[in-house]
Amino acid sequence: MSAPAAPPMQGMRDELRGSLDLPRVLGDVTGARPGPTVVLTGALHGNEPAGALAIRRVLAELAARPERIAGRVVGLCGNRAAVGAGKRFSARDLNRRWYPADLARLAEAPVESLRDEDLEQRELAGTIGELEKSGPLAILDLHTTSGASPPFVCFGDTLENRRVARALPMTAILGLEEIIDGAMLGYYADRGHVAISVEAGQHRDRRTVARHEATVWIALTALGALREDEVPELDAQRTLLAEASKGQPAVVEVRHRHVVLPGDDFRMLPGFTSFQEIREGEVVAHDRSGPVRAPLSGMMLMPRYQGQGEDGYFLVRETRPFWLWVSEKLRLANAERVIAHMPGVAPEDALNRLTVDPKVARAFVVDLMHLCGYRRRRDDAGKLSFTRRAR
Ligand SMILES: [Zn+2]
């Protein structure tokens, strides 16, 4: 099955018109057999309604025949007020500031003192917090991009996240969660949940709803919530995503992020799409200090064609699947016990945290840390700090 002929823009607005007032809980279906608790989130950014629309459709189908589900599937809408206003956010990005201290402060504040994203975040975290009480969750967060893009999947690189993400026929992005602090999925991944996010294409491209639907069905089978033969047209769903990702690399790693500060007057040059080849030194945007040049060669990811948001663009490079195989073997062998004894590496907290002195350690140690599932944290006093992702 090929992707439906593109009627971008047209149609999405009609469906949106009826959805401006999306409820927080888009659906909640419990099956007859035990299984995982899957949480689907959409529209964490208000200008990205496609995910929420797809979640609503899948949950309506599941509700018609709940007996086929193992476990429970819950769909949640992210930034309800911003969806209503057709904006990315009202006061601040809802996909930031997911830190334990901030969430505790929001949970304790009198509700009438909260507004905008503070209120949205408190409700969302409260709902997920209740679900969390019953055990580990699998969270799938659905997004779209401001520039044209084939679909892709992002995740903290644990073996379980990787297994689910690689079940989706689309490019896997490594290292994005590591450089964006305070994202919702980073918080839940640190709490030991399966957490992956999918970007399905341009915000107003109608095909993104079908891509997100296909993503949800395939992820539900990978997570064990549905048997493959219980999914309507599973092969067609896979083909839809594979066709949309045709010619794209299987796995890439983020090598550069351009941060946009308030007042930068950042303007991306027109016409860039995700995974387009970029040469070192190429002018990709302008801001108040002049032309913005790519600091290294690679592929463009998520060029920013919207007024709001602090990510200007990313550059990624292809990673050979061989390295994923290597890293799986290293992790299964607990290779961090060896790394901890290498020169310049100081273990703390039973290997959950390793500090690397770059003046002493060999350059490949950083790559080795990533291969072993460590995440780079803020660097202090010239030392690199890594923490082990929850397993
Ligand atoms: Zn988004």
Write the layout of secondary structure elements.
Layout (H helix, E strand, L loop, with lengths): L11 H6 L7 E6 L2 E10 L7 H15 L5 E8 L2 H6 L14 H9 L7 H17 L4 E9 L6 E4 L3 H8 L4 E4 L1 H4 L4 H7 L3 E9 L4 H16 L11 H11 L6 E9 L7 E2 L8 E2 L4 E5 L2 E4 L4 E4 L9 E8 L2 H12 L3 H4 L5 E4 L4 E4 L7 H8 L2 E7 L2 E6 L3
Helix pairs in contact: 2-9, 9-10
The site of zinc ion has 4 residues, from loops.
Instruction: Kindly report how far apart the N and C termini lie.
Output: 37 Å
- Globally, the shape reads globular
Mean pLDDT over all positions: 89
Biggest sheet descriptor: 11 strands, mixed
Rg calculated over all Cα atoms: 21 Å
Per CATH, the class of the largest domain reads Alpha Beta
CATH topology of the largest domain: Aminopeptidase
Question: What is the helix fraction of residues, given as a range?
Answer: 25-40%
CATH architecture of the largest domain: 3-Layer(aba) Sandwich
Strand numbers in spatial order across the main sheet: 1-3-2-4-7-5-6-8-14-13-10
Uncertain segments:
1-10
The proportion of residues in beta strands is 25-35%
